[in-house]
Structure formats: C-alpha cells, structure tokens
C-alpha cells in the first residue's frame, strides 16, 4: 500500500466529516433520522445523549461499518459506504471494547496492524516505538496484552491510532471504567492529538470530561441531533444564560458601561458596587477595562462557566411529557 495520508489531506476549510439527512433504519424504524453534521479539521467534537439515541450507529456509518439507509456522508472526502477501506486507513477507531490479540504483546499487536497497513519493516518499527512511547507504554511493550488493565488497553488503542497517523480519531466511551488518574492521562493524550491537528470525535456520558476537552458538542435524542454547538452557545439556548460574571467595583456609571460590553445580555445590580452580568462569553477582561475606563477600583471579579451537566439536565427536564423536540 503506497497511499500517504499526509499527501491527501483535505484543505482546512472543507469539513473533514460532512453529513446531510443521514438516516439508518432497522426495519421500518429510523434509529438515526436525518442528521446534518459538519466537523472541521482539528475539532474535538462530542457526541452525547441517552442510551440508544443513535450515537454509535452514526459512528458506524461514518466508518463504513453499517449501511446508510439514506442521506449523504463524506469522511475526508470519501464516501464511507462506497470507499470504506480509504476511510479506514485514515480514521482511527477506538470502540468501547478494543479488540487486541491477548496472547500477543503490545508491540506484536501494533506490528500486526502495521503489516496490514503495508508499512515496511523499518518504518513499522520506528512508528511502533514512537507510538508506544507517546501512549506511555514503552515499559510494557513486550508484555502480553492479556495482562493489561482496561486503562492500558485503551492506551494501546490510542497508540494504534498514533501509529496509523490517523487524521481522525473516533473514540467511543474511551474513559468509562478508568480510574481518575488513568482518565486524566487519557484526556491529556486526547489534547495532544488535537494539538497535532487530528480531529477527534468523542462519544461519552461523562459530561464534565466532554465539556473540558470538546470544542463543540452534539446532543442526540431518538435518532436526531437536538442541540449542537459550543457549550456557552448551548447554555444561552437552553438555560437562557451563558457566563455569569460578578463584578465588585466602585466607579461612576459602571452599570451602564458594563451593559455596553459586546456579548453582555443583562446586568443586574446586586447591591452598591456589586453587579452580576449575564454574557455569551467570558467578559472578565472587558469588565476590568470598563472599571478602568470609569476611573473606578476593582475589588473582585468572578465567573461561573455554564455547565454541560446543567444544560443536559435542563434540556430533558423541559421536554413535554412524551414530546419530541428536535431542532438543532
Ligand atoms: N443491528 C441492529 N438491529 C436493530 N436495532 C439496532 C441495531 N443496532 C442498533 N440498534 C438500535 O438502534 C438504536 C440506536 O443505537 P445506538 O447504539 O446507535 O445508540 P447509542 O446512542 O450509541 O447508545 P449507547 O449510549 O447505549 O451506546 C437503539 O435503539 C438500538 O437498539
């Protein structure tokens, strides 16, 4: 195989994952029902939603692992239904239960994948060594995978993605069952992938983790994407507020100044010299400048970031009983 993923990279402005009206039916039931998606290169994109909402089915369609009933989908410019091998070569997939050969060592497992990819022996050895090192597995490289904990298997999955030089990493519940330290390390590694320009799709129920590492998230419900965007945007939509910034400062006409800051939707005067601002973004630097502009003195500035947990909970609480609400 002589294909070099680096030579075929899609230009940055073209979404690396594009779907329109994507649908998957089992019998007469649509489990993914007309979803639209555009994911940019280098984005960390979260897929959230209750069990059975259609996240894994969407991922499987992306990878050419399940049929697309109707709609369009392209991954790195390829149609996964017609060109699954081209997609597979460029996309790393870490399913919930990673399938490695238990009787082989970590190195041997990666060597097996490397051979399937058609990598020459020297190149294979170089990439394996580098990938194991990046995943923190160098010391256990010659241990059989049967002896690995779940955390180590997950890292080996990441090592495989690194070795493949995948342009997209698709991670399905990667941190479930990991202890807090292993989780932190794993999230750190996802951050490193992003820093290299790799696009990451993360399906997870761990809302705090999703919030920490994702640029945008999508909320699936009954086969639809019902919400999509950056957390502050979703907070404005669902909670009616994004960031809440509190300012304690003296200064004449400060409340009026604060209200003029772009992105501020509301300013409440809590008491003399104490203000609570609701904003679409973190406006603390602007608030500090506003205090200086009125020749005031700043005593305290704090921000409450919107939480994905609160958005998720409120969204489902606000649904009318048995009601369907599916506009992204
Ligand atoms: N092969 C299949 N045949 C019939 N129905 C299926 C099949 N695979 C999935 N489904 C159904 O499709 C729906 C969506 O499943 P999917 O696995 O995509 O959900 P999910 O959002 O990934 O859930 P989870 O959070 O539990 O992983 C579920 O109702 C599931 O039962």
From TrEMBL:
TM stretches of this protein: none
Keywords: ATP-binding, Nucleotide-binding, Transport
Keyword Lipid metabolism recorded: no
Limits of the ABC transporter domain: 17-247
ATP-binding listed as a keyword: yes
Entry's Gene Ontology molecular function annotations: ATP binding; ATP hydrolysis activity
Entries under Pfam families matching the protein: ABC_tran
Purpose: Involved in beta-(1-->2)glucan export. Transmembrane domains (TMD) form a pore in the inner membrane and the ATP-binding domain (NBD) is responsible for energy generation.
Family: Belongs to the ABC transporter superfamily.
Name of this chain's protein: ABC transporter ATP-binding protein
Species per Swiss-Prot/TrEMBL record: Bradyrhizobium manausense
Biological classification of the source: Bacteria, Pseudomonadati, Pseudomonadota, Alphaproteobacteria, Hyphomicrobiales
């Amino acid at each position: 195989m002589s294909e070099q993923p680096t030579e075929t990279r899609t230009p940055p402005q073209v979404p690396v994952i594009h779907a329109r009206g994507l649908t998957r039916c089992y019998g007469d039931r649509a489990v993914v029902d007309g979803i639209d998606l555009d994911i940019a290169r280098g984005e960390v994109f979260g897929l959230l939603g209750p069990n059975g909402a259609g996240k894994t089915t969407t991922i499987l369609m992306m990878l050419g692992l399940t049929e697309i009933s109707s709609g369009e989908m392209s991954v790195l410019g390829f149609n996964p239904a017609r060109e699954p091998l081209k997609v597979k070569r460029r996309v790393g997939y870490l399913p919930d239960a990673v399938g490695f050969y238990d009787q082989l060592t970590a190195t041997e497992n990666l060597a097996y994948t490397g051979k399937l990819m058609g990598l020459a022996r020297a190149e294979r050895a170089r990439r394996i060594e580098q990938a194991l090192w990046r995943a923190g597995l160098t010391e256990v490289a010659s241990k059989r995978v049967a002896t690995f904990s779940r955390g180590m298997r997950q890292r080996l999955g990441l090592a495989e993605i690194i070795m493949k030089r995948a342009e997209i990493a698709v991670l399905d519940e990667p941190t479930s069952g990991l202890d807090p330290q292993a989780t932190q390390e794993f999230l750190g590694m996802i951050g490193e992938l992003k820093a290299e320009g790799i696009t990451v799709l993360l399906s997870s129920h761990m809302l705090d983790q999703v919030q920490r590492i994702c640029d945008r998230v999508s909320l699936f419900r009954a086969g639809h994407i019902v919400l999509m965007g950056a957390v502050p945007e979703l907070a404005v939509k669902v909670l009616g507020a994004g960031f809440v910034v509190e300012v304690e400062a003296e200064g004449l006409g400060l409340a009026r100044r604060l209200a003029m800051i772009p992105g501020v939707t509301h300013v409440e005067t809590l008491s003399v010299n104490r203000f609570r601002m609701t904003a679409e973004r973190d406006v603390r630097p602007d608030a500090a400048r506003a205090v200086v502009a009125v020749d005031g003195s700043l005593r305290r500035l704090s921000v409450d970031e919107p939480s994905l947990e609160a958005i998720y909970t409120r969204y489902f609480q606000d649904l009318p009983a048995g009601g369907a609400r599916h506009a992204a």
